[in-house]
Amino acid sequence: MDMNRTIDVRFGEELDPNIVDQVMKQRIEGLEGTPSISQFASGHSNLTYSIKYGDQAFVLRRPPFGTRPKSGHSMIREYTVMKALKPSFAEVPNCHFHLDDVASPLGAEFYVMEQVAGRKLEKDIPADWGFSASDGRQLCEAFFDRLIALHKIDYKVIGLGDFGNPVGYIERQIMGWNKRYERALTDDVEPFADVRKWLEDTMPKVETAHAICHGDYRLDNVILDADDPLKIAAILDWEISAIGDPLMDFGNTLAYWIQPGDPDAILATRMQPSTAPGMMTRSEIIDRYEAATGFDMSKFAFYHVYGVFRLAVIVQQIYYRYYHRQTSNKAFAGFGQMANLLGNYSRHLIEESGL
Taking the model in full, what pTM does it have? Predict the structure, then answer.
C-alpha cells in the first residue's frame, strides 16, 4: 500500500482547517496556500491525519475523541522518544512541533511530523510486488533486526535517562494493564480473572535488561522504502513507548505474530503478513533475538502471554468507547468478541507454557 493513500476524514473526527492552517504556518516556515486534510484509515487508537500544502506533506497525530486512558494516548511521549532517537536511529520521522492540552487549539494535545514517502503493509504483501520466499525472509529479518537494534541503544546516552524509571517495569505493566482491563469491562466480555492472576503470580521479579521499548512494533507500523520494499524507511506509532524490559516489548510484538498452525480463530485475526512465504516462525524469531542479545529466553512464554492479554486490554478499551457510544466508528463493533477471543487464547497459551 502507498503510505500516501488516505480517506476522507471520518464523521465526528474532523479538524478545523482554518485552525490547522494558522498553527502550521506559525511554526513551519515556507508554507503557502490552504491545507488539504485527509485521514489515514489504518489504526484503531490515536487519530492520524495527512496535512498537505502542495507537494509538502505532514502528519498530525492526536488522541481519539471521548473518554480515554491518558497514559495510553500520550502525544508528548511518542514525540519525546522520536526527537531523542532521530540522530542515532534513522528509521524515525522528523518531528516538527508538539502542543499540549493547554496550548492546543484543537481541543487535545497533538504533534506534527514529516510524512515519510514509501509503502505501508497491511494484511498481505501485494501480489504485484512479486515477493519470493527469499524476499519474505529478508524483510522479516530486517524487521526484527531493527527491534533488536532499538533494544541495544543506550537510552541514557541519547538523553532519555529521565524518560522513566525502568526498575519495577514488569510489575507496573502487569498491574497496570490488569487494572485497565477491569475499568474497561462491559457486560458482554469475560473478566478473565484467572489470566490476570496468573500474570501477577508468574511475573519475573526483576527485568532482564533496561532498554527503549516501542510498545507496538508491528509490520503494519513501519513504512518500507518506496524503491526497495526490503528496507525499512520509518517506524511509526511510538505512543506507548517507554524505558523498560525489552522482553516485554518483544512479547508484545510476537503477540501480533500469527503463524500457520495457530488456532483457526486466531488465524482469522491476522492483520499483518506474518504468514507470507519466507516469514520466520515465532520459534525462529526467538532464536534470532536470543543470539543477537544474549538474553535468556527459557521463560519467554510468560512474555508472550503478557503480550496477548495486553492486546486484549487494548481492544477492550477501544470497545468500551464504542459500547458507551463515545465513538461511532463501526469498525469497533466486534472488538468485544475480539477481547474474549484473545483472553481465551491467553488461557490456551498458559496451559501450554508449563510455567
Answer: 0.87
